[in-house]
Amino acid sequence: MDKTKQLANGIEMPRLGLGVWRVEDNDATNSVKWAIENGYQLIDTAAVYKNEQGVGEGIRQSNTKREDLFITTKLWNADQGYDSAHQAFNDSLERLGLDYVDLYLIHWPVEGKFNDSWKAMEEIYESGRAKAIGVSNFHQHHIEELMKTAKIKPMVDQIELHPTLTQVELRDFLAKEGIAVEAWSPLGQGKILQNPTLVEIAEKHDKSAAQVIIRWHLQSDSIVIPKSVHEERIKENFDVFNFELNDDEMKRIDALNINERLGADPDNFDF
Ligand code: NAD
């Protein structure tokens, strides 16, 4: 399996990365450094995680060339709008200590604002300070609304996606549109790791349930960003390129879907 996925604009995005939601600024430095030392290139942060500084520090401590890394951050809801999006992006770059990011995402589809935010994101993209731009938590109808005024189609939609929320229709739509799917809370925030089906498949492959879920995402063509702050688990979550789930196992994991959200529904959030 290729370790990267080509986005619509030709940029290669790593298929497996580290998420750092609910990671303290200080802890983010070590987590990012350990991840990069163990082969990760993709790091997923956001302004609202309040750890962009720690992430930037981890990147510097890893002593890895900038072009070998793929850094994502996101525009927070309170900063949506044309001018405020430009300002928020500059603030994120400054906190990260970087002169560009690889991917900048609209974090949530704030009604009445995301089209204006996108105009700023398109300008940021054209300036070269974001190598790709995309959205997060957008349903099909949000993307259709965005496209009424957009010049550039989002390259990525980062959505809640795990074996108990498989979002088949949305993924089909995104595939048809050439928009890469990125899975957030890919391990179901750790809550599904005891699931008997996952445990049984894991035992058969001599892998952990977390590794089986990550592999299921990769074989489903989703980009995946599991979070951990523990070095051993960070390593474990990347050790998934030396085994393969068969069709039957893939189908059994698909069948765990119960349309259960752990986070807010993008049609009904108040933050
Ligand atoms: P996740 O599904 O990645 O689960 C993380 C939890 O699983 C850990 O806290 C730990 O308890 C457990 N875990 C991780 N590796 C393990 C292992 N090898 N063995 C046993 N347990 C393990 O949860 P997440 O942090 O919610 O999602 C991942 C990333 O997705 C976030 O860090 C963030 O970057 C992104 N995210 C984005 C949004 C969005 O709105 N765009 C929302 C939520 C998360």
Shape: globular
Low-pLDDT stretches: none
User: Which strand-content bin applies to the residues?
Assistant: 5-15%
- N- to C-terminal distance: 38 Å
Largest sheet: 8 strands, parallel
Q: Estimate the mean pLDDT confidence.
A: 98
Count of DSSP H/I helices: 10
Q: Could you please describe the fold and organization of this structure?
A:
The protein has helices at residues 25-37, 52-61, 82-96, 114-126, 140-147, 168-177, 196-205, 209-219, 231-238, 247-254, and strands at 4-6, 12-14, 17-19, 42-44, 70-75, 103-106, 133-136, 156-160, 180-184, 223-224. It is α/β, with parallel strands linked by helices and 271 residues long. Helix 4 (114-126) links the parallel strand 6 (103-106) and strand 7 (133-136). The longest helix has 15 residues, at 82-96. It is globular, with a radius of gyration of 18 Å. Residues 19-21, 44, 107, 136-137, 158, 184-190, 193, 208, 210, 225-228, 233, 236-237, 263 line the site of nicotinamide-adenine-dinucleotide.
